[in-house]
């Protein structure tokens, strides 16, 4: 018993004597020098970054300190900052910003397009749960370029040049924040964009008389469509519109032979559809035109579209499994993405149940903000 008590006493004494050695010390000092441009004239299409940096702060034991940068309106006290952003990698003594990011901060601070205002910024340092703010702050005079503050969450196409003659809004697919796309048929006439189908929607157009940029307000854009299938991309981030010419049909082809499975014709409202016989290609089926070198059953396919006159692959995304589907896959599995055509890249495998069937293949260019394809109306051709 004495030995046990002696052992416990030694352990307690050891832990007590080592406590000071292993206690975490959160001690650090905050930056004292802030450095950055005094003024910025923004161009949201520019790739030139804006860098804010600081010095004079560090951990007392040489460890890592985490930093965040606070932004506020001129005259603010950072109690309700306009934006809070972590530094580069969270611990670097600098923050690299795109001009688009600064534009958003300036917009949220109340600086209007084509106006100049001042932002203030400072640095917060933290370590081990302790947070300290730099005693000083710095300013940036920001001049915003042309821009649109009422960024829509959805976008609709109107105008006399649309395939429904402007009788109702055709909804764009949202590609990413501020970027919208639609496949449609255009005739000669005008188009405009609206944030919704309601009478009080925000309206937008391309200012063809001045700089060719996207503008908010009443106005239309003239197009010289000739009953062409077109892809319209509207980018609020760069205030631009691009119209690409799309062929009136899209081919669904086998990867090994390029033979057509079906030719999909444009049906209106952004959809292409066509029927075809599906026979997996193999040597035991000479009617499937198997090349002499083919040593496997070919069940892989993709789509070839004409984009501005060039053959272009509409295929499987890089992060989507190339394995044969078994059923229950999400719509995103069948989403089409655009690539330069390469024979063995971006192919899907067909479900085994599609072999020896007649099917309708359809591309929907705006299905829940995805561009997907489906196989329907399957019947046996055995």
What does this structure look like?
This protein is mainly beta and 382 residues long. Helix content is 8%, strand content 46%. It is built from two helices and 27 strands. It has a 16-stranded antiparallel sheet that branches.
Helical content class = under 10%
Write down the overall geometry.
Answer: flat
- Rounded mean pLDDT is 89
Number of strands: 27
Number of helices: 2
Structural class, by secondary structure, is: mainly beta
Task: Name the helix and strand elements from N-terminus to C-terminus, one letter apiece.
Answer: HEEEEEEEEHEEEEEEEEEEEEEEEEEEE
**Roughly how many Å apart are the termini?**
89 Å
Instruction: Describe the sheet with the most strands.
Output: 16 strands, antiparallel
Low-confidence stretches: 2-25
Please indicate the percent range of residues in DSSP E strands (runs of 2 or more): over 45%
User: How large is the radius of gyration?
Assistant: 30 Å
